[in-house]
Amino acid sequence: MLKVALVASSVLGELPREGLRLAGALALLFLMPVLLVVIASAALVAMLLSGFPGFGSSNPPPVPPEHLSVMLEVSAGSGVPWELLAAIASVESGFGANMATSSAGAIGYGQFLPSSWEAFGEGGDPYDFHDAVPAMARYLVAAGVSTDIPNAVWAYNHSWEYVALVLGRASCYGAAGLVPTPTPDAPPALVPTEVAS
To answer: Which tens digit of pLDDT belongs to each residue from 113-166?
Structure first.
């Protein structure tokens, strides 16, 4: 009888442990796909916002020199940082490489809605960066860029992900050393200085 009781207790004692193992295996089986989807989604968002070539802020496309020249001139006249203009042009059309009409109906180099172009384009050509860059600056000035850059960028495109992408790219362009930073002792090389005669 003692032998039967010991065998029964041994078998019954294993049941809770085996049940827990089975429950753990089932939970892992059902939770693993959910975990993989979460990880894949996080990786995709990270690539899009911070490093996937052409999308992220860590590897923005280079600013074409003729576009940079216009951006510097517009920046000097409007107070809008040239880096911000470059970042928006980079994101919106890849500096004119993709000026197809968007699904929202936005057009041209700066991807303006027709009503916005009417208000800020001053009769220019939305597909020409010579006209679009000043219009971008006018839009940002009207949106309060001088006191709140993130909200002015948000006004340009109502997406905080867009704001993060543009500000990241602007930071990269500023750090790239494309334009010397003025110092009190040495004016930048790109700014002509007058020589007294």
So the answer is: 999 999 999 999 999 999 999 999 999 999 999 999 999 999 999 999 999 999
Q: Is 63 exposed, middle or buried (0-12, 13-18, 19+ CB in 10 A)?
A: buried
Residue 177, SS3 per DSSP: coil
CA neighbor of 87 nearest in space, from 125, 136, 138? 136
Nearest CA-CA partner of 82 in 194, 193, 190, 183 = 190
In angstroms, what CA-CA distances link 132 with 49, 89, 98, 128, 150? 25, 9, 14, 6, 20
In the numeric block, the tokens 């040495």 are attached to 186
* pTM, two decimal places: 0.65
**Residues 190, 179 contacting (CB under 8 angstroms):** yes
How far is residue 61 CA from its own chain's centroid? 13
Q: Report the alpha-carbon distance of residue 113 to residue 49 in Å, rounded.
A: 24
pLDDT over 90 at 35, yes or no: no
Residue type, 146: S
Sequence-separated (6 or more) residues with CB below 8 Å from residue 61:
54, 90, 94, 95
DSSP letter, residue 100: P
